[in-house]
């Protein structure tokens, strides 16, 4: 059955945010919003699945109106589930791992970062979210210019990649996965708590004939990789909102 013959209730489109609906850490453009809500939404059920928390989604996607514009919102890889504007479920990494493991992990990260030589360091090196920890070698309180500078530095020196390798070795006994997303940080979460986690909620309540996912970090180690390659998903690799619009236009025959 081709996509163009499916009804709105038979097809689900899931979107990453950074690099997919917006440029990295930027806000959505009004013309793209108009396209998504006026042309795409009437044709398909739409949802967001991102690594960030809900507040960061609000910042990038024009505020709380997304609660009514999107059918599903899955912040933090889907560890928080929002449907029809209301939170319907939540998982918690602190309860899952336990305080002794968390303290050991945090102490190691802070010790590692204290000895790490990078061009700049700012603040908030570890950020807690419901379903994950976000580790940022330069600190999340950096400017856009500093963010862009570190992104280029990291490509050359592989700061995040090397740190993840050290963590995997040190915490080989702990149920953890590491995923690079965005320009300056990486996520740490229990195995299976990647973006495919949102599919647990969807499959428990709905039967879609097709589920599509759009994301930019689809390479191994990227935070879109697991859902992009999941056999239940039709994956679309994008680099910009322009790519997303082009592919949507093609598959929905807009």
Overview of the structural elements:
Its cofactor is Mg(2+). It is an enzyme of class 5 (isomerase). It comes from Drosophila persimilis. The structure is a single chain. The protein is α/β, with parallel strands linked by helices and about 250 residues long. The chain folds into two domains: about 5-90 and about 195-250, Rossmann fold; about 95-190, Eukaryotic phosphomannomutase, cap domain (Hypothetical Protein, Haloacid Dehalogenase-like Hydrolase, Chain: A, domain 2). About 35% of the residues lie in helices and about 20% in strands. A seven-stranded mixed beta sheet has the order 5-4-3-2-1-10-11, covered by helices on one side. A four-stranded antiparallel beta sheet has the order 6-7-9-8, covered by helices on one side. The model has no long low-confidence stretch (mean pLDDT about 95).
Descriptive tags:
10 helices; 37% helix; 254 residues; 11 strands; Hypothetical Protein, Haloacid Dehalogenase-like Hydrolase, Chain: A, domain 2; single chain; 7-stranded mixed beta sheet; Rossmann fold; alpha/beta
Characterize the biggest β-sheet.
Answer: 7 strands, mixed
Number of helices: 10
Shape call: globular
Strand order of the largest sheet: 5-4-3-2-1-10-11
Number of strands: 11
In the CATH hierarchy, the architecture of the largest domain is 3-Layer(aba) Sandwich
* Rg, nearest Å: 18 Å
Outline the low-pLDDT stretches.
Answer: none
> Which CATH top level class of the largest domain fits?
Alpha Beta
Helix content estimate: 25-40%
Task: Name the assembly state.
Answer: single chain
Distance between the termini: 17 Å
CATH fold topology of the largest domain:
Rossmann fold
Structural class: alpha/beta
User: Helices and strands, in N-to-C order?
Assistant: EHEHHEEEHHEEHHEEHEHEH
The CATH fourth-level homologous superfamily of the largest domain = HAD superfamily/HAD-like
Please state roughly what percent of the residues sit in beta strands, choosing from under 5%, 5-15%, 15-25%, 25-35%, 35-45% or over 45%. 15-25%
Average residue-wise pLDDT = 94
Query: How many structural domains in the coordinates?
Result: 2
GO cellular component, one term: cytosol
Family: Belongs to the eukaryotic PMM family.
Pathway: Nucleotide-sugar biosynthesis; GDP-alpha-D-mannose biosynthesis; alpha-D-mannose 1-phosphate from D-fructose 6-phosphate: step 2/2
Pfam families: PMM
């Amino acid at each position: 059955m081709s996509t163009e013959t499916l009804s709105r209730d038979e097809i689900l489109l899931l979107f990453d945010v950074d690099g997919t609906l917006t440029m990295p850490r930027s806000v959505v453009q009004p013309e793209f919003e108009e396209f998504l809500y006026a042309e795409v939404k009437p044709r398909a059920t739409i949802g967001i699945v991102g690594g960030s928390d809900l507040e960061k989604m609000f910042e990038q996607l024009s505020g709380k109106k997304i609660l009514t514009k999107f059918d599903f919102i899955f912040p933090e890889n889907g560890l928080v589930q929002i449907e029809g504007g209301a939170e319907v479920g939540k998982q918690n990494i602190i309860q899952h791992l336990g305080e002794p493991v968390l303290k050991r992990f945090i102490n190691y990260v802070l010790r590692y970062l204290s000895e790490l030589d990078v061009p700049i360091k700012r603040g908030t090196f570890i950020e807690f979210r419901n379903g994950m920890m976000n580790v940022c070698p330069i600190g999340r309180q950096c400017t856009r210019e500093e963010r862009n500078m570190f992104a280029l530095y990291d490509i050359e020196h592989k700061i995040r990649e090397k740190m993840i390798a050290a963590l995997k070795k040190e915490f080989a006994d702990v149920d953890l996965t590491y995923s690079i997303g965005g320009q300056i940080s990486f996520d740490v979460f229990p195995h299976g708590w990647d973006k495919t986690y949102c599919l647990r909620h969807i499959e428990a309540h709905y039967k879609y004939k097709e589920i599509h996912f759009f994301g930019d970090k689809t390479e191994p180690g990227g935070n879109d990789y697991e859902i992009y390659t999941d056999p239940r998903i039709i994956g679309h690799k994008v680099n910009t909102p322009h790519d997303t619009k082009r592919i949507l236009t093609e598959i929905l025959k807009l």
